[in-house]
What we know:
Helix content: 40-55%
Structural class: alpha+beta
Number of helices: 9
Shape: globular
Distance between the termini: 48 Å
Largest sheet: 4 strands, antiparallel
Strand content: 15-25%
Order of helices and strands: HHEEEEEEHEEHHHEEHHEEH
Radius of gyration: 19 Å
Oligomer: single chain
Amino acid sequence: MDKIKYLSRINLFDDLDIEELQQMESIAPITVTKKGTLITSPNKSQKRLYLIKSGKVRMYTISNDGKELTIDVLGTGHVFGEISLFAPGPHYIYSKAIEDSVICSIDKVQFEQTIMEKPDIAIKIIKILSTRLKEMEEMMEQMAYGSVRNKLLFLLNRLSEKFGEPLKVHADDENEWIQLGVKVTHQELASMMGSVRETVTELLNELISEGVVNRTSTRGFFIIHLKRLKETIENTI
């Protein structure tokens, strides 16, 4: 596996030259993480910064009644683990691969040394954290207080923004349909929302009848009509 090629495509390191990437290679082991693997949890005390080379990772917390509540879904180029890396005290955030992923990680001490030597990386981390906190606040508010339908609409919109791929289905709908670049089942969507599969299936069937959502096959990718999704969200506020 060409680790330097992988590192150079992670946005945190995209300004480093080849010599600097070679230095990073020795401290950033890369692992292939299978779908469903729990990567971080409150029970794991290891402090590392994780960088996604490819794949998707779901960040979530568990409510008092035992339901999983998604706070973010991350893809290629994103980093996670930064909260436990820099902030003291317990943190009740879990991360799990929702598809086979390639992830590299850096130990806390080594990363601190890196940002001392490369201040530009520290600035990038601050920008990433600022964006992440805003997205997490929005997601947690929706997942905690929104109706089940609103949760599903919000989640589909967030996944579309992060992983949407243009898909031309009909001539009159050019550039309106996108395909979610991640396969998720009804059960997985339910888990992300703290709901149950039967409720999500019923809601998805409603959205299909409204022309907002479709699937490429029974177990394929969801496709979303962006304009109708945005209009539906606006009409439910």
